[in-house]
Amino acid sequence: MILGPWGIFFGASFLLLHHLPNYVDGQIARHHGRASIQGAVLDRWNHFLVETAAFPCSGLYLENG
Fold this sequence. Notes:
Layout: H1 5-31, H2 37-64
């Protein structure tokens, strides 16, 4: 996000590319009956890490912007 408008575009694109396959993956696993506790835990940790990293990046952009 520090890269200006293009940084915002790429950052938003990467966030979308994270959430879309993650959503589709969960739907496919549930459809085929292959959902597991380990998959649910990994999914929650993945969301935690990505969403936690988004806020400091936004703060850095606002501070430097």
